[in-house]
Model the fold of this input.
Amino acid sequence: MDNRELNVQEAKLAEQAERYDDMKLAMEKVVKCGGKLSPEERNLLSVAYKNVCGARRSSWRVVTSMINKIDDKKKAVVNTMKKNIEDELNQICSDVLVLIDDYCLNVKDPEPKDPEQEDPEHKTFFNKMKGDYYRYQVEVAGEETKQALVDEARLAYEAANECANELPPTHPVRLGLALNFSVFYYEIENSPDKACGLAKEAFDNAIADLDNLKEDSYKDSTLIMQLLRDNLTLWTSSLGDENEEQQE
Done:
């Protein structure tokens, strides 16, 4: 068993033990071995960072919600904790963004790219992942850095969207991109019309192509389609309420 396989096994063990920081470190080693990640390796990397980052995002929301509910004497402590969480979150996001650019997409490599890394599924997955982690940075950013991060997230999602057009409408990577890109439009850019348009198009295209859905991706694809539909229901309801308020 070579080092790459050992690190993959370590990551799987860490996932089972819910030691996501260890899982992240193991998958960083796998990525730095070079070459295209297998779908399993790719998903392990995604799970590791999603959980490590997700824990900080959750903590940040809790601490932020407390600021206006406590007296001034305690605010200094809360603000210090909030700043520490933001620093940790930004570092995690920066680490994965460098990893993606340098090893998964080779954006700085002047030499011809590995043909395997030109695969549309591979490029869609990692450009989407870039968009996600820029989006997480936007959530905690100050006004001086927020717009630049919003622009980076949009560019990454747009690059992923271009690659995704080469994938079937029911492909889970393409659907996952539509889900997250539409959330970006709704939550970050405050563009509910764009969010609903993107989510509806992705859902309708997948429904039209449902007969060609592969059995091995059926569960993942239908789950994401359900999430798209749930978001559409929520967002269109909110839009309807806003229109009624304006008419009143």
Notes: The mean pLDDT is 91.
